[in-house]
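Forwarding the complex inputs:
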Amino acid sequence: MIEGISIYEILSLSSVLFFIGIYGFFTRENLIMVLMSIELILNAAAINFVIINTYLYPDFLQGAIFSIFIIALAAAETALAIAIIINLYKLVSSVEVKDTEIMKY
Amino acid sequence: MNYSYVIAIPLIPLALFLLLGLFSKKIPPSISGWIGSLGLGTSFALSLYTAYHYYIEAKVNGIYQTFVYKQTWLAFSDKLHIDMGVLIDPISVMMLIVVTTISFMVHLYSRGYMKGDDGYTRFFAYLALFSFSMLGLVLATNLFQIYIFWELVGASSFLLIGYYYTKPSAVAAAKKAFIVTRFADLGFLIGILVVSYYSGTFDFSELNNPEGFMISNWASTSFMGLSVFTWGLLLIFMGGAGKSAMLPFHIWLPDAMEGPTPVSALIHAATMVVAGVYLVARLFPAFYFVEDGFALTIVAYVGAISSLFAAIIALTQNDIKRVLAFSTMSQIGYMMLALGVSKYDGHEGLGFMASMFHLFTHAMFKALLFLAAGSVIHAIHSNYLKDMGGLRKYMPVTHITFLIAALSISGVPGFAGFFSKDEILAAAYEHDMLIYISSVAVAGLTALYMFRLYFGIFWGKDTQYEHIPHESPWSMTLPMLFLAVMSVVGGYIHFSEFVSADHIPFEAHLNYSLAAIASGVGILGIIIAYILYKKETNLPDKISNTFGVTYKWAYHKFYFDEIYLFVTKRIIFGLVAAPMAWFDKYVVDATMVSIGNMTVSFSNKIKGLQSGKFQDYAMAFISGGVILAIVIFYLWL
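Prediction (whole assembly, two chains):
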């Protein structure tokens, strides 16, 4: 519970964050930027978990714990993605999305 | 007396086959021949022991008893089960003697004949397999067991004909023998199923029982004007005709001569080819009683026609083994016709006894003829009469033994063939005049072609040989001498005291007037052969020219092979198989191929959707999810 701020405002914030992430995911040309957009989406989801837990079910902790899971998951996923991107870079000397089309049909 | 030890007689060759077959690379040729011969020698001794005890002790009230030792092998229901076992009765004991004697002699002979051959041990393994299958066939207690061993002898015959598997003609002959007999065996199998379905049993003792269902109820079922059982028996006889090279299934036998000569002696002269005769004899009461012997009449005429037909062809052939092959076919025709004209009781069953008698003596002298021919071929490395002549000087033992066998098969008085042939002719004379006349003609032809062979090989022109031919080693001549003795004394056995259709011994006497006619015709044949072939003259050519077309037809075996080729190639392949192949290729295949092609071309068109950009895929995924969500939202809410 944060004084003076209702749940709608915070949910609006996370929605904005989520759609920025989606937009970034589809439009960025750089793989690193795409990865950052994915992080934004995950963060929006994490905020939602925490906020809904705090405002609607103050006596429970599942939402908070889940957000910690999401953070851990995001870290692991980022490590994996970075490893893939580095290997891709070795192969095509670029981290641009348009240079990753070598695997189509 | 317990005869269950008889099971060991076929099992010894089986053990030999496994031993020699599995370790054929490990066992040196020097001992594998001895192992095989010793094993068969043991079987031979056991058979003699069995025969001695059986023929002396097995009579109760003057009737030979039948002993059956069996175990249920496959039980389908209470009534329908397939047994495995041994059946001891006069003809099976007689066949045991024939098979083990010839097999033992051929084993001994092969040690000399096959010496130095690459597949020496393999050869003995095959011989053992064949001996096992043939003995199993002889001892079978029911139709199904005999069928199993029937196929096994067919398979071992296939292996042995194709023994020289690098020779294309041997491979072709092996395939031909297998396919032709297999085709006839199809009839056999259908016959077994028909007979057992209607009579409810596979057992010989049930089928042959005069009070049994089949014999007492044959009239209860009918199909196309004949009893179903008659059809069944005729189909079974079709299998027998295939194995015994009766018309029209004889075409494989001459080609089977591509195998090694000892194999021809064992399988294609003495044992396997008489399996058809044995089969009819085994089911003789059934053949005789069902439909008043209608099927038996067919057997008689098939035998008589085959006999005459083969004798005519044998006159014109130049390959000595082929002459002997056609002679075998002709003599088996004799056995068939003797069975066919036979009745059941007492002296009326003379034909049955004569057939078995001739089977016995024929096995001895025909195996001897083949072994002697093998000895000649071994010496001069050719099968053809034109390469032979004057060999009596070089090969005295072969000459004498061949002469004895030839005299025996020609029915010269005093030799074994005379006695058995006389019984056959007497039986034919009593029951069917037409068959009798053709048989007498065959007797003359037999003497003629046999002595054409004899004079052609051992007298005739003085051929100049590149290598001086020399007599074969003792390992080969000893079995020949033994069989030569059997070809004489075999005829003095009082066969009717041992073998008869109803198991009751009877007295068979020589019919002197008939015997005189038969041996007169035989001696006439020998005299003609003496005039024509003793010295090299142009008389035979002149005579064959006067016969013209007939001679040409006989020389080409009456074009039976060509007819078969025509039927299979032109009619079956051309009119049935080729349209079906066309349908398969252009309708069935084409449908499947065009479905495949359509898939390929369609996917070629839409492959552009796969851009390789993961963002496009994600876009498609998410918009798909959104659309789905909207649809679900509107449908359910």
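The radius of gyration of chain A is 17 Å.
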